[in-house]
Specification:
globular, Butyryl-CoA Dehydrogenase, subunit A, domain 3, Butyryl-Coa Dehydrogenase, subunit A, domain 1, three-stranded mixed β-sheet, Butyryl-CoA Dehydrogenase, subunit A, domain 2, alpha+beta, about 15% strand, binds flavin-adenine dinucleotide
């Protein structure tokens, strides 16, 4: 992890991304989302701003910023359109597992191209029968001379088709191992086929796919961490998912903020019974609860990011932030829809998009039921009593 940076640099970055989102994203987000269209030009601009390499060290071509800067950017992107934060998320998880666990040679091989976005990354852990239950992975990699032969079907690969690099969890004789698989973006490459593009409630414009590996060959130098990495892949990927959970919490804050700000604006414009609805106490109660929970979600998220940035254990705090922020986003999106009345249910306003995007944060990077287990496990260790 890069060193903590000057808060002013972080604030400038946040302000710059916010201005860009207002100018380039907000006017078109709903159109792209309703058409389920990939925003090519917007992604090119994100590359130019360096957003694919925020936490990658400058020596390897990244911006060399910290996790707090990363979550600030993620919140701003998600406040404009949640899918944009998904485009950088699994990419950043793939980069962070290489940063933490790759050999120096592997870092030099992949990180500079990931940092510029020339090479787009994705994370492929889940399978149809291995979502929460990650130890159930059946995708296999068998050694054959200087190569591994990969066979199996992976599910839920966000960015899978457009990515040129997959951080893939596959079973080897030593246990679950992380392979870094390079491929050409597109529906097929070597023994890899995108077998299904999964239709979704929200989180549109970005692909989530099923990918089949049918005897796909990679060099033995694609084992993350080299031979010493064999069997360590699951632990490493789950470690990197702490960053993913903090990302999900920041995304949730972004969606929640957009939904809240739309609601408080509308409440002052819309009149019923001779006065703005913001003057009805029932609406005021809602606005107060929404803002309070949003603030709490942001503080939990920043706290988890700071701990992780310091190199401290953050499993409990990342879980708490993800759990609270995602439930908050779901609640605030629903309350915003209620405050907007009938117009909130239409496609004229982005409220229905927030309402469809919010539930993903409850499921992605480990469901909230699983977060509670992670939090409780961590707490029981911290508060263990003798005997
Ligand atoms: C849009 C989308 C994008 C995704 N992108 C990616 C990606 O890029 N890469 C990737 O690897 N994965 C990705 N995922 C997969 C995601 O991480 C899994 O869907 C998630 O972990 C849940 O797994 P599951 O769907 O198999 O649900 P299941 O594990 O089948 O869970 C079903 C229900 O049972 C509950 N449950 C399961 N076990 C327990 C337990 N022990 N105690 C209590 N309750 C339990 C769950 O909380 C849930 O409510 C994505 C998923 C979605 C929907």
């Amino acid at each position: 992890m890069t060193a903590t940076i000057d808060p002013e640099v972080r604030d400038e970055l946040r302000a710059g991304v916010r201005r860009w989102v207002e100018r380039e994203v907000l006017p078109v987000a709903s159109d792209f989302e309703h058409a389920d269209e990939y925003p090519t030009e917007i992604v090119e601009q994100m590359k130019a701003m360096g957003l694919f390499g925020i936490t990658i060290p400058e020596s390897l071509g990244g911006l060399g910023l910290d996790l707090l800067a990363y979550i600030a950017v993620v919140e701003e992107l998600a406040a404009g359109w949640m899918s944009l934060s998904g485009i950088v998320n699994t990419h950043t998880i793939a980069a962070s597992v290489i940063m933490r666990n790759g050999t120096p040679e592997q870092q030099r091989r992949w990180l500079p191209r990931l940092a510029t976005g020339e090479l787009r990354g994705c994370l492929s852990l889940s399978e149809a029968d291995a979502g929460s239950d990650t130890r159930n992975i059946t995708c296999r990699a068998v050694r054959d001379g200087d190569e591994y032969v990969i066979t199996g079907t992976k599910m839920w690969v966000t960015n899978g088709e457009r990515a040129g690099l997959v951080a893939l969890a596959a079973r080897t004789d030593e246990g679950i191992t992380c392979f870094i698989v390079e491929k050409e973006p597109g529906p097929t490459f070597g023994g890899i086929t995108v077998s299904k593009n999964i239709g979704k409630l929200g989180y549109k414009g970005i692909e989530t796919v099923e990918m089949v590996y049918d005897g796909h060959r990679v060099g033995a130098d694609c084992v993350l961490g080299g031979d010493e990495g064999l069997g360590h892949g699951l632990g490493w990927i789950l470690g990197a998912l702490e960053v993913g959970r903090i990302n999900i919490a920041a995304r949730a804050c972004g969606v929640a903020r957009a939904a809240f700000e739309a609601a408080i604006r509308y409440a002052q414009e819309r009149k019923t019974f001779g006065k703005p609805i913001a003057e009805h106490q029932a609406i005021q109660q809602k606005l107060a609860d929404m803002a309070t929970k949003l603030q709490a979600a942001r503080l939990l998220t920043e706290h988890a990011a700071q701990l992780k940035q310091n190199g401290d254990r953050a499993d409990v705090e990342a879980g708490m932030a993800k759990l609270f922020a995602s439930e908050t986003a779901f609640e605030i999106a629903t309350e915003s829809l209620r405050i907007h009345g009938g117009v909130g249910y239409t496609t004229e306003l982005p409220i229905e998009r927030y309402y469809r995007d919010a539930p993903l944060m409850i499921i992605g990077e480990g469901t909230n039921e699983i977060q509670r287990l992670v939090i409780a496990r961590g707490l029981l260790k911290r508060y263990a009593i003798d005997g």
